[in-house]
Amino acid sequence: MRLNDTTDLALRVMIYAASMKDRRFTIDHLVAAYHAPRSTVMKVVNALTRGEFLTAQRGRSGGLGLARAAQEIGVGTIVRHMETDFDLVECMRSDGDCTITASCRLISPLAEARAAFLATLDNYTIADIAISPRDFGLAAS
Q: Which residues form a coiled coil (predicted)?
């Protein structure tokens, strides 16, 4: 399996957010940390805010932060929120048109592998994958 680039960035945004603890940060901080296009970072942050993983506060003392404690935010939950397609092969798609779907023996192992992949991610929280602010070149708070 391969996660899409926005899911990859979403997980990295959440790692950054966890490293900040209770300090607010901005989209510009994320752009600088990951050298990602601002428009892509904005899209990812909006998705994470809509999913209630991040909070956004406007104004002079505003910024972004975790919506709840890092140990309460599951990696698998974020991946499910960000990924739009877990249909690994044509026969798993609703509009699939494979001629052997009715007798195919590949669907079940792939569905099992997908479930195992997500179950493994469900064993981890953002707190488990967080790193130090120093890893971002920031002073620890």
A: none
